[in-house]
From TrEMBL:
Residues 111-138 have a biased composition (Basic and acidic residues). Residues 181-303 form a coiled coil. The keyword Coiled coil applies. This is Uncharacterized protein. It comes from Diplodia seriata. Residues 51-81, 111-157, 311-412 are annotated as: Disordered. Residues 359-370, 377-389 have a biased composition (Gly residues).
Length: 412
């Protein structure tokens, strides 16, 4: 039969301290988990921000590449148009060269016509000389005939006749020279005027054509500038290609930073999983402790039933009531103890020490035979817990309860 000294007790203070300890542990784990979750969220935001920056950098690189391709296409187009303009200018130069060549040909023809005119003048002079010679012959014949006919007129000597002939020939030559010179000057002036008008007309046409081509080039240049200004992004400098290497290096650094953030996020996720597993284990241990308390309450109820069936002393009843109040105080609001403190004081003065606390899980009272008390089991069950699993040690309180039951059976 259990004695009051053999009944272990657990105070409300110890139960509350254990409860506060577990609650503080749970609160600290919850706070740690919340901090880790906040850190994970911040890392997720940082990774998202890094991905956004990487996407923006890639988009900027794509825009720069497209602008570069567009500029290259514009450059090739302008090169093609420049080749066309060069072809047009080359054709204009060829036309100018051809006109110069025609002008030289016309000048050569003019010189040839002058030479022919001089040759014609020489032939005319020769013909005049022949005519003078023929006239001299006629004069000689007339003089001879007049001399033969008698002294009817004045006689001329040969020198006078020759002088008169020379004067007439010189006069005729001067008149012919004046006439041919005037004719030649008129012809040269007409040809010069004609060639000058043709050259002036050709020059005006070529000047207009060059002006039109210059305007077309300016228009195309303006269109090119407008196209480049419309296609390139804002703030893009086509000549500032030296910054591309720096942008690429910065992009690589951002990618490496993103990889580091991902690695750190994975490690933090592992730590969070470990913390969650630890929290789950602690909750399981707390649940086992609660189940152990319930079994302890069942053991107390069995002790009360033994108290009701057996004749117990008032001191034993007071000890049992005090034990029941101390156990039931863990699940209900603690109440003031009765002023009869002789039972607890005697219990505290006994050789049984206070339990230091509840042990781990794997503790129970089940598995006994029907009709056998869970308190008064034999010593053979001391190495087996309530669930039948061997090797798991029992708590100090349960050992005391079993000893109390064994002592009660020995007294019987």
């Amino acid at each position: 039969m259990p004695t009051p000294r053999s009944v272990p007790t657990i105070t409300v203070r110890e139960m509350e301290s254990m409860k506060s300890t577990y609650q503080s542990q749970i609160s600290s784990l919850t706070a740690t988990l919340s901090g880790r979750a906040a850190e994970v969220e911040s890392l997720k935001k940082a990774v998202a921000d890094a991905e956004r920056r990487v996407g923006e950098a890639q988009e900027q690189v794509r825009e720069e590449t497209s602008a570069r391709e567009h500029a290259e296409r514009e450059k090739s187009d302008w090169e093609r148009r420049g080749v066309e303009v060069e072809d047009v200018l080359r054709s204009i130069r060829e036309e100018v060269f051809k006109s110069d060549k025609e002008r030289e040909e016309l000048l050569r023809k003019l010189e040839e016509s002058d030479r022919r005119a001089e040759e014609a003048e020489a032939r005319v002079a020769e013909n005049e000389t022949r005519a003078l010679e023929a006239e001299n012959k006629i004069v000689d014949q007339s003089i001879m005939t007049t001399a033969d006919s008698g002294d009817k007129g004045p006689r001329y000597t040969a020198e006078e006749v020759q002088r008169q002939i020379d004067e007439k020939v010189a006069t005729l030559c001067r008149e012919l020279h004046v006439v041919y010179k005037k004719k030649h000057e008129t012809k040269v002036a007409a040809l010069k005027k004609s060639y000058e008008s043709k050259a002036e007309k050709k020059h005006v046409e070529l000047t207009h054509k060059v002006e039109e081509l210059s305007k077309q080039i300016e228009d195309l240049q303006a269109r090119k500038n407008d196209a480049l200004a419309g296609s390139l992004p804002e703030g893009f400098d086509p000549h500032a290609t030296a910054n591309r290497e720096a942008d690429l290096r910065r992009l690589e650094e951002q990618n490496s930073e993103l990889e580091q953030q991902k690695t750190r996020l994975a490690s933090l996720a592992g730590e969070i999983e470990a913390a969650r597993a630890e929290r789950t284990q602690l909750l399981q241990e707390l649940e086992n402790e609660r189940r152990e308390k319930g079994e302890l309450v069942a053991a107390v109820d069995e002790m009360l039933s033994l108290q009701a069936t057996e004749a117990a002393t008032p001191r034993q009843q007071a000890v049992v009531e005090d034990f029941r109040r101390s156990v039931s105080g863990a699940n209900a609001t603690p109440r003031a103890r009765p002023e009869n403190s002789s039972g607890p004081s005697e219990f505290r003065s006994s050789g049984i020490g206070k339990p230091s606390g509840l042990r781990g899980p794997g503790f129970g009272f089940g598995g006994g035979t029907a009709g056998e008390s869970r308190i008064g089991r034999g010593a053979g069950a001391s190495g087996v817990n309530g669930s039948g699993a061997p090797g798991v040690p029992k708590s100090r309180m349960m050992s005391n309860i079993e000893r109390m039951g064994m002592s009660g059976r020995g007294q019987e």
